[in-house]
Design brief:
- The complex is a heterodimer of chains A (382) and B (166).
- In chain A, helix 2 links the parallel strand 2 and strand 3.
- Chain A has one domain: 3-Layer(aba) Sandwich (Peroxisomal Thiolase, Chain A, domain 1), CATH 3.40.47.10.
- In chain A, the strands form two sheets. Chain A has a nine-stranded mixed sheet with strand order 3-2-4-7-1-8-11-10-9. In chain A, strands 5-6 form a two-stranded antiparallel sheet.
- With 382 residues, chain A is of the alpha/beta class.
- Chain A is globular.
- Chain A is built from twelve helices and eleven strands.
- With 166 residues, chain B is mainly beta.
- Chain B folds into two domains: 52 residues, no CATH class; 88 residues, Beta Barrel (OB fold (Dihydrolipoamide Acetyltransferase, E2P)), CATH 2.40.50.
- In chain B, strands 6-5-4-7-8 form a five-stranded antiparallel sheet, with no helix packed on it.
- The termini of chain B are far apart.
- Classes of the chains: A alpha/beta (382), B mainly beta (166).
Chain lengths: 382, 166
């Protein structure tokens, strides 16, 4: 198979309202940063892969049509990807697959959301036909699964506060993060109002404007550039309303993780992965995904969180950039995880760099926790 | 320049979206029963899983769920959340309890309200039963059920709800 690597990651500043740029300007800001980082001219780009979450989130339908010039896609193949919140991850996988196919040498990929232009919680809470109108956004949907996790493994409530505080402390080291909350700690989180029991305000992700882009190229195009080699990548999905489904520990997540570990030759992910950017939009998903991704046994995830294993100086740092809990332009949130993993192994993560990070994981999930996308990147090809 | 004189850098353009939803044959069979106050799930002929509300096929096996399975309006709370914030466009006033309702004999849950109980007394595994609207208000909708309310029966261990193919 053709080996592919990330040679440029570009991000915007994430914020609640980026009124200084249009949607096209926002996307182009990330692309320009990625192209500068990759040190490439436009002629080198063979295809553009764009991803974003539901068009209802802004009310702009099929934005890839209007954005074709801003994303540099004129005269080139363009593909729009959509897999709900996981789309940033699946878009990266599809872009990398284009390179691995041998049909494209270098691919530009970009994902975005401009949440300030509409209301995602409204878009996620429509009245469904023939049903009572009681659905209450993403938090309302995931909260019952979190409650069941807490019940099943007798997890203490401060675990959620701890994750929320830890990710926001990391965000203080990342100038691009949307939320910078000075003095953030567990007490501050636990003092915020309850939104969807057991989730409090600061245990939930913000709504952000932002975009993330990457340039992915084939091994023979890399030259002397700094590169994050893609050692394993996969997407998986499962039936939302399927009998036997375990929403606390989805099978598609288990299978997707096993697939990328096998591709990357990883036998013990906890020991062999140096750091990970994992999609945690609500605090409790950190311990839930620790278990789902095979970093520990079932019921042990919250104990790893509790003993600071996922802190930036811990055994397995999670979300050094501040994660989805600190910046959440939904369509881009998955690609930020993938791009931040790449920056870690390229040694470019600046103040939130994990020392000697050689192998990193990027992860995204979406929809009703039924879409998953993951990759492993490494500083070396071997 | 006062704030009122500052030119706007954006404009609001509301979108009104209406759509027609085609129920399909499986949901139509289900809703015709709901209009009569009956809850009839549909079973998979292969793995025997029972779906309510049914969507016409079994996601496990990819076959039509053509076995009609009459159910009662009793079940248990698989899990739940208490919603404390108003949701744009949603008429319900918080706080309200949104629960995953698992009817007896069904292998998936659906979302509905829990009422007639203090919120702090609601538990995973609690036994509940539907509280129906007056018969003359029944339509083709699960809104015929106003909410679910606790009944005086022992809690269920929700670990036993997990579907295993026999």
């Amino acid at each position: 198979m053709i080996q592919a690597g990330v040679i440029g990651v570009g991000q915007t500043k994430y914020d609640a309202k980026r009124r200084d740029v249009s949607m096209a300007g926002l996307v182009r800001e990330a692309i320009d940063n990625a192209m500068l980082a990759a040190n490439l001219e436009w002629d080198a780009i063979d295809a553009v892969i764009l991803g974003k979450a539901p068009d209802m989130f802004e009310g702009v339908i099929m934005p890839e049509l209007y954005l074709a010039d801003a994303i540099g896609a004129v005269g080139k193949p363009v593909l729009r990807v959509h897999t709900a919140g996981s789309v940033g991850g699946s878009t990266a996988v599809i872009a990398a697959s284009h390179v691995c196919s041998g049909q494209f040498k270098t691919v530009l990929t970009v994902t975005f959301e401009k949440q300030s232009e509409s209301n995602a919680t409204w878009a996620l809470s429509p009245r469904y036909p023939y049903s009572p109108h009681i659905n209450a956004g993403a938090g309302g949907y995931f909260a019952p699964f979190i409650r069941e996790y807490i019940r099943r493994y007798e997890a203490p409530e401060h675990i959620g506060w701890k994750v929320a505080a830890k990710d926001r402390q990391n965000a203080l080291k990342n100038p691009l993060a949307h939320l910078h909350i000075p003095g953030i700690d567990e007490k501050m989180v636990s003092d915020t109002p309850m939104l969807w029991e057991p989730l409090r305000y600061l245990e939930s992700c913000p709504s952000s404007d932002g975009a993330c882009a990457m340039v992915i190229t084939a091994q023979d195009q890399v030259g002397s550039r700094n590169v994050a080699w893609i050692k394993g990548m996969a997407v998986r999905s499962e039936g939302t309303l399927s009998a036997g489904r375990d929403e606390v520990n989805p099978q598609a997540g288990i299978d997707c993780a096993k697939d990328i570990y096998n591709q990357a030759g990883i036998h013990n992910p906890f020991n062999e992965i140096d750091c990970a950017e994992i999609y945690v939009p609500f605090s409790w998903y950190e311990p839930m995904w620790l278990e789902n991704l095979g970093f520990c046994d079932l019921g042990e995830g919250w104990k790893l969180t509790d003993k600071d294993a996922t802190a930036i100086d811990g055994e397995l740092p999670f979300n050094m950039s501040g994660g989805v809990l600190s910046s959440n332009p939904i369509g881009a949130s998955g690609m930020i995880r993938f791009g931040e993993a790449a920056l870690q192994v390229m040694g470019l993560a600046e103040d939130h760099q994990v020392e000697d990070a050689k192998v990193a994981m990027g992860h995204a999930y979406g929809g009703a926790a039924q879409f998953f996308a993951m990759w492993i990147v490494s500083s070396s090809l071997d | 320049m006062s704030a009122e004189d500052t030119p706007k850098d954006y404009s609001e353009s509301p979108i009104n979206l209406e759509y027609f939803y085609t129920a399909g044959s499986a949901t139509t069979r289900f809703l015709n029963q709901v209009k009569e106050g009956n809850i009839v799930g549909q079973g998979c002929p292969k793995c025997k899983a029972v779906y309510v509300p049914p969507r016409g096929s079994c996601p496990r096996c990819g076959v039509a769920t053509d076995i009609e399975v009459p159910l009662t309006d009793k079940g248990c709370i698989e899990s739940f959340t208490v919603v404390h914030i108003p949701i744009p466009g949603n008429p319900i006033v918080p706080p309200y309890v949104c629960a995953m309702i698992r009817l007896d004999g069904a292998n998936i849950s659906f979302l509905h309200l829990i009422q007639d109980v203090e919120i702090e007394n609601i538990r995973i595994g609690m036994r509940i039963q539907a509280v129906w609207k007056p018969k003359e208000e029944w339509t083709h909708s699960l809104e015929n059920i106003k909410w679910f309310a606790p009944i005086d029966e022992p809690d269920v261990d929700v670990a036993t709800l997990r579907f295993e193919e026999s």
